[in-house]
Design a protein that fits this description.
This protein is mainly α. It has one domain: Growth Hormone, Chain: A, CATH 1.20.1250. Helices cover 79% and strands 0% of the residues. It is globular.
Length: 412
């Protein structure tokens, strides 16, 4: 349904307080990503602290990712039954507190448990934050705000890289697990000021059991979107999580140099998310994602096989502009394809279950480097992922511009 055919009042374009809702959704995702990516930059420091190999710390990344569907189920059902705001606040306080406790882990086992618990909170947040932001957004801004919502992820990555340069040298690795807590409090304050989206009130189900029945009725759509998010997770984590280690191991760059590169390519990632989110309003969600994927495909050679600082920087910037450009369309695309009464549980669970299925990707990619070398491991893995995504989106459905207030189609 085109936005031009729907009235502003029907869409809730002038709903008071929507800015608070969108800002809370975005800031919480920034914080969530920051707390995740801190570990990416501390692999060596944590391995030294707990007297384990680097690959053992890398496994805690996979463990955190694997626990995300648990959080999506728990917080998703709560948000669809009781509203977006309070479950969002509980989720933010939960994962921020667990992250803070990680700083005081006495050993590797305790750290692993805390990262698993953090994964539950990380998985619980995206669907709640995205549904709050997308349901509150004016339709005319949905593509742009979708990009801005997903840009919170590279923004968290950027802030983690910046903290490694500024906080770590002066206060040590433990401080990095606590610097985000004030942002958690700000997110909660904004969520309290935001109104509950009117579309949740319109489509609210009577029980959590009813919400899960809706999930089952739309299992065909769920299966397709699960495939989408599984491969998209391989794209995102496969290009991000090991790249700092790649730059250190293969090219011998210092920690500060790697942090500088990471900051620059995350600036480009934010720009990509905003750009392709807006582009999707003109060309459609699927074609917007496919254009972004072509940017990443074009960057592959320079990203993996560059031999100078400048080429690697350009390649990584183009790669992440494409990767996060594709992801910038995802909040709008998933929410538009989700059933009304389960718009928190449906996209959140499919997103995080996809992350679970893709969670071994980082460790497999890391292991592949022993057989073919780091550059070819990155290239082969991500080349297959991008080509598969282009095929998936070429044949997939789309409901760009759908009004969340309109009656839900009976077609699953």
């Amino acid at each position: 349904m085109s936005s031009s055919t729907e009235s502003r009042s029907t869409l809730g374009a002038d709903a008071p307080g929507w800015q608070f809702a969108v800002t809370a959704g975005i800031l919480g995702w920034v914080l969530d990503a920051f707390d995740f990516f801190v570990v990416i930059f501390l692999v060596e420091a944590l391995a030294t602290r707990f007297s384990v190999e680097k690959k053992t710390i890398v496994w805690t990344i996979s463990i955190a990712l694997a626990m995300r569907p648990v959080g999506a189920l728990v917080f998703g059902a709560l948000a669809d039954r009781f509203g977006r705001r309070i479950p969002l606040i509980i989720c933010v306080l939960y994962f921020s507190s667990v992250t803070l406790l990680s700083a005081f882990s006495p050993n590797y086992a305790a750290f692993t448990v805390l990262r698993a618990l953090y994964g539950i909170g990380m998985g619980g947040y995206w669907g709640t934050g995205a549904s709050l932001a997308m349901e509150s957004s004016p339709l005319r801004l949905r593509g742009l705000l979708s990009g801005l919502m997903q840009a919170g992820y590279p923004m968290g990555y950027l802030l983690a890289a910046l903290s490694v340069k500024t906080v770590l040298p002066h206060y040590g690795w433990r401080a990095l697990f606590g610097v985000g807590f004030p942002l958690a409090l700000l997110t909660c304050f904004l969520a309290l000021k935001a109104p509950e989206p009117s579309v949740w009130c319109e489509h609210r189900e009577k029980s959590i059991a009813d919400i899960f029945r809706i999930l089952w009725r739309h299992r065909r759509s769920f299966s397709y979107l699960l495939l989408v998010m599984t491969v998209m997770s391989c794209l995102s984590h496969g290009t991000q999580d090991l790249y700092p280690d790649f730059l250190k191991s293969v090219h011998g760059f210092s920690r500060d140099t790697v942090s500088n590169i990471a900051m620059l390519y995350n600036v480009c990632a934010i720009a990509g998310a905003l750009t392709f989110g807006q582009v999707s309003e003109r060309v459609g969600r699927r074609h917007g994602i496919m254009l972004a994927l072509c940017v990443s495909l074009a960057a592959m050679r320079f990203w993996a096989f560059g031999t100078t600082f400048g080429v690697l920087l350009a390649g990584s910037c183009l790669m992440q502009a494409g990767v996060q450009g594709a992801f910038g369309v995802i909040p709008a695309h998933l929410n538009e394809l989700s059933p009304d009464a389960a718009r928190r549980l449906f996209p959140g669970f499919v997103y995080q279950l996809g992350v679970l299925i893709a969670s071994p990707a980082v460790s497999l990619e890391y292991a592949l480097r022993h057989r073919v070398g780091y550059p070819w491991a990155l290239t082969l893995f991500e080349g297959v992922v991008i080509l598969l995504l282009l095929l998936i989106f070429q044949v997939g459905p789309e409901r760009q511009g759908r009004s969340f207030h309109a009656p839900q189609s009976s077609h699953p």
